[in-house]
Amino acid sequence: MDIQAYIHSGIIESYVLGLASTEEAIEVEKLRLQYPEIDKALEDFSVMLEKEAFENAIAPPADVKSKIIAAISEDERKTRIVPILPFKDADTNVSAPVRSLRVWRFAAAASILLFIVSTAFNIYLYNRYNEKNAAYIALLTDRNSLQANNQVYQTRMKEWESALSVLHDPKMAMIKLADVRGQKNLATVFWDRNNKDVYLVANVLPEVKTGKQYQLWALVKGKPVNAGMIDPACEGVCKMITTPQAEAFAITLENEGGSSTPTMKELCVMGKV
Amino acid sequence: MNTTNIYSEGELVAMLKQHQEPAFNYLYDHYSASLYSVILNIVPDKELANDVLQEVFLKIWRQIDTYDTTKGRLFTWMLNVARNASIDIVRSKNFQNSQQNRELTESVYEAGGSTEIDIDKIGLRKIVHKLKEDYKVLVELSYFQGYTQDEISKMLSIPLGTVKTRLRTALIQLKQVIKQ
Fold first, then answer.
1. CATH code that applies to domain B9-95
2. Which end of chain A is more exposed for a tag (fewer CB within 10 A), N or C?
């Protein structure tokens, strides 16, 4: 490419004066980057035009400037949202990060405070939970023991019910066994006249020492016959050994497990049929 | 207006792109007179030229981001902004009407203290006047009135290629005159 011919073709002047077509302008802008001579020619003619314009300058009326300054100030006021002023307004530049730092500090302090409050509340709730759990376990235990007691009473009640049915039976003979020294009735024997079953209610007999047990005897033709051991666990009516014949019943205190013959000095109560 | 530069062109442009008003103040003080003469070359009415000058500086302020320093000098860019704004005004309907009215009133009050400027006696136009008639008309129509080469070719009934080469020659001669 003949650079000098290009430079002297008038394209330089056309471009600088704004008379070049779009294609020509693109070409010039491309070539000026490749050829320093073209760039220099463009710069030279621009400077020349600029100098000429300065030499022929005509000062505009003074009021034009104030109008323009007012207009651009108004423009700025309207359009400026975020000021980009790295040299001016040192205060705003400094105080903005300080303000945001302050906000962050406040946020950090607030979150730490919230965390502490939350932890304290959690500990409080955990303690409350433990208390309530202990109370619940105590209630469960109470309930279980009440249920157990209830079963005991139910059993006892059944025993008394059966005892009551025995007492109300008209076939039953009631033999009161009284203290041999006094007249105090301490036990009662119920004897079924039909099937000869013997029941004993011994609830008011004195308590026995360990290793000792009461034994019921039936006197058959003057001789004592074993009618059964009194189970200390039996409350209410206790079923004894069926006795077909008897003139009297007696209770002696014997060694645990009973004896074949009654120990007469330990005779507690006796009653005739 | 050959006042001592307080900013280099690069500094000035950088500050303008940051919309710093002191830079704009400097820009106006430094360039308004030369741009005003460019405007007066195209818009002969002083009042109207004042409005155009205001418009030109507002455009410079608002569109400084579109100025690309690699594509030429700041003044060249501003010169083209001023030239285009002036041509737009001159070619607008309002201006055409006012010119007709003016011609009527002027015929009544001959030299009646007009604000009109003899545009042939200032700036670049003064230089263009020194050119040969064939060249002068092409520069007049294209540079001062903003017609495209295609439009000029039709207006003057000259082939487009001739318009192009003749205008180029005219501009080369214009440069020679400016140089002197």
1. 1.10.1740.10
2. N
